[in-house]
## 1
Amino acid sequence: MFCYQCQEALKNTGCTTVGVCGKTADVANLQDLLIFTLKGISFLNLKAREVGVNKEKSDRFLIEGLFSTITNVNFDRNFFLRRIKEAVALREEIKEDLRKAGVKVDEYESIDAISWTYGTDADIEAISQEVGVLSTEDEDIRSLRELITYGVKGMAAYAYHAYQLGYKDDNIFRFMEKLLAKVLDDSLTVDDYVALAMETGKYGVDTMALLDKANTSTYGHPEIKKVNIGVRNNPGILVSGHDLKDLEQLLEQTAGTGVDVYTHGEMLPAHYYPAFKKYPHFVGNYGNAWWQQDKEFELFNGPILMTTNCLIPPKDSYKDRVYTTGVVGFEGVKHIPEGPDGKKDFSEIIEHAKRCKPPVEIERGEIIGGFAHNQVLQLADKIVETVKTGAIKRFFVMAGCDGRMKSRTYYTEFAKALPKDTVILTAGCAKYRYNKLNLGDINGIPRVLDAGQCNDSYSLAVIAMKLKEVFGLNDINELPISYNIAWYEQKAVIVLLALLYLGVKNIHLGPTLPAFLSPNVTKLLVEKFGIGGITNVEDDLKMFLGV
Ligand code: FSO
Ligand code: SF4
């Protein structure tokens, strides 16, 4: 096992015996083999597209496979064994389709990702140890290959949510395949991979735009909303993750049952969508970011539905109340499958909730959010006016992820220390570090504007573009906006690549720079894009404010 895909990689180098996240070595290796096989599938499916014999099921298989290997999504060895076997079967099916179409597939058999095969599970386990990150020897090529692979994993997660709502774009699938096929190509240079990283950013923007369209067309444009963080006296179900369609189905099925529904972590922004306001039993948000789930799930008392990441290995005290769905999985945890019609039957969770006590109240009050692009642009005149009068001097984009590391208290301290004439623009679970601080408002504009989930960082980019236009600027970097972004897993990688593609410079990334960036690649990102890390609140504030 060698994994360094997330911010909590051991010693900021890599996890080698077991993941800090709890991922076991055998699962890490199987994930590597699944990715390896998906590269082979991608290579072949590109050919299939050329001759018009590609099948839609390959698209879905690709995004599900990539998504399942993101940090804290799936820990289940059997899931990966099954998926690898399905991947080999799908790969052979594509080969057969190509042969029938007259393509000389045998020419590609020298590529291991296309030809490897197995007899027993033990073969799979053995091969899985040979195809990991370290199989690329040159550390700069390895670094760039992993950078774009993690970017494409994040892209796949967003494409998956859009797909679930009936939105897809063949250009995005084709690009993912192209990228994964290029990772197999030993003739590519550092410059080639840098160019591919930029292109990944472009498709990252397209994928987030597609998901934005899917979410807003289905559930309406997010609106300002005060979300209750207390509890009621009914049994409840807690929903975590990012999948709005799962939430919708659960809200429908719980209506009138006496069971309340609460959001956790990244599901909080669901409250901002008009379509979910009609459910009186959609009570509020419980708790904080994903990494606090071990304490909060215990106190919640009722069942918990994990629709995507971030799951942490459940404690025995509440493991029987955890349910997974979609590509999420954990051995010994009940999984709710999707029916052929896209429907999910949550009745077991609802019956389970009825047997449980109401949640323990851990806090009271409200948090405000719903500042996605449509809502903010409605307020654009007011915001522009406030900037022109000097009442708002600077915006700080503090989007991204939260995590366990103690050093992340930096973000709370940074938010507290910001001058009162600054506004934080946020998205993703990073917000939990400062969204309950009551930082006040500026002429009625809250000082923390939450656009939504991490993919809604797209909204922040739309807002920045609009402000650039309104202020008549040539370059997005002339705006009074600083970027102090917290990252954790691979969706943050695609958000970062998207921002770089949009021309945003001088992004600061913390609490540590990615372990997968080699010294040379880091140097390149510093020189080309002004990427930087963080130091301490005092020095960073001076640096950002230029004082
Ligand atoms: Fe957070 Fe987890 Fe949304 Fe991530 S819940 S860390 S970037 O999965 O997806 O922000
Ligand atoms: Fe380690 Fe992160 Fe990989 Fe988990 S996902 S094994 S914590 S680097």
## 2
Amino acid sequence: MLIGCPKEIKPQEFRVGMTPDAAHEAVAHGHKVLIETAAGLGAGFTDDDYRAAGAAIAETAEQVFAEAEMVVKVKEPQAVERKRLRAGQVLFTYLHLAPDPDQTRDLLDSGVTAIAYETVTDRQGGLPLLAPMSEVAGRLAPQVGAWTLQKANGGRGVLMGGVPGVGPARVLVIGGGVVGTHAARIAAGMGAEVTVLDRSLIRLRYLDDVFGGQFRTGYATAGRTADLAREADMIIGAVLIPGAAAPKLISRAQLADLKPGAALVDVAIDQGGCFETSRATTHEDPVYDVDGIMHYCVANMPGAVARTSTLALGNATLPFLLALADKGWRQACADDPHLLAGLNTHAGKLTYAAVGEALGLPV
Ligand code: NAD
């Protein structure tokens, strides 16, 4: 199969769909790989790295889309890219169709077979192609929160680990799933005093078993959340209610009770945010002040560390990519119900129920 990987064109997107290692493995499986020139530069991979892996370099995106039997990307295809898709071609990338009727219509019109990273499942009921980005965002959260806490950035001027004789920062993590667990580990590793709140006892038991001693856990009642928020230097919002907007766990009125200059890092901003005063920001202008409380609410946190994110995503997508290339999408999906769960459109038909429900389209 000829696998094509164009350069991402969405603003501020520096990741790339295939690493040189992924290209090397695909070539070893007998496939051809065509990478658009400079596609990997944002993640630190040169055309020569891809050539050394056995890939060919295309001068234009048009050539990649025209020749590829399967197109591998990171972000949903932009309007100009959607015009290049066709029936009989496989598209393997993040799509997030439910809130995006224009993209859905274009994919249906193109006839492309679109497999969405975000709806591929695993045996544990998780989302294996979303998890790496949650790991990245979680580990990044204390890092950006620590920067936000610095005086010059509007913060309290508190050092995460303190120093001998001076106590560390207090960090409250709300939500102990993938993001929250990784955030808590890194914050604790920086020397902060960390508490993780969740509403799932199963999750709290797991955290206590594995990390007891590194950070504390608590059940996330509104009262306990408010009490711990008052004492916190940094609050990391990491909740998720699948399929729903994030619940608002800290109100505007509560900001008056927080420590002046406290840092709120709302990782759940891509689901609307879990603080009432959160609004999405960008890497260019990530932090804003409401009532003396500094808010960091970047919706695409993994983009800040494009190389790590590309490598992490590549590790997770590679087995699926190889299955699709080796067997063809029909057989690969027939053999693996978790990959089949990723199928969103085929030959002009919507094949994913939740997208149909969200957009009022037949499935
Ligand atoms: P997850 O499902 O692994 O974890 C969410 C946790 O929140 C669960 O343990 C759940 O029990 C808990 N929870 C739900 N409601 C709660 C409440 N009211 N109080 C306390 N805990 C509650 O999800 P995840 O992968 O960790 O993702 C968390 C959020 O981060 C999601 O909104 C996700 O979209 C977002 N995210 C954002 C970025 C970014 O760049 N901003 C990147 C990755 C993920």
